[in-house]
Amino acid sequence: MVDGDTFWMAGTKIRIADIDTPETHPPRCAREGRLGQAATVKMQAMLNAGPFKLVPIKRDIDRYGRKLRIVERNGVSLGAVLVRHGLARRYGGGKRSPWC
Questions:
Q1: Which stretches of the chain are assigned E, i.e. beta strand?
Q2: Does the reported pTM lie above 0.70?
Q3: SUPFAM superfamilies, per this entry (predicted)?
Q4: What's the count of helices (H) and strands (E) in the chain, helices before strands?
Q5: Which of the chain's termini has less CB crowding within 10 Å, N or C?
């Protein structure tokens, strides 16, 4: 895991396309750091809980070279689960809102 919305899989860096999580490297404030760490731990637990599917979106790769994918298990976005837990926001591109 890199953070709550980015992870490595088989040597490929994956950016979870449908969410934005608080930054951890470095956080802009203590609250963002706490939420970012919690998002990272929760997403790692969900990824390790069993098989999941990487769903491509229109744009394949972001400006940092990461593959953009929605992560699903049984048709449910794992990103949406983080949103429900208050550890992520829905994201569809563009400017992100600050967490501080």
A1: 6-9, 12-16, 19-20, 53-61, 67-73, 76-77, 89-90
A2: yes
A3: Staphylococcal nuclease
A4: 2, 7
A5: C
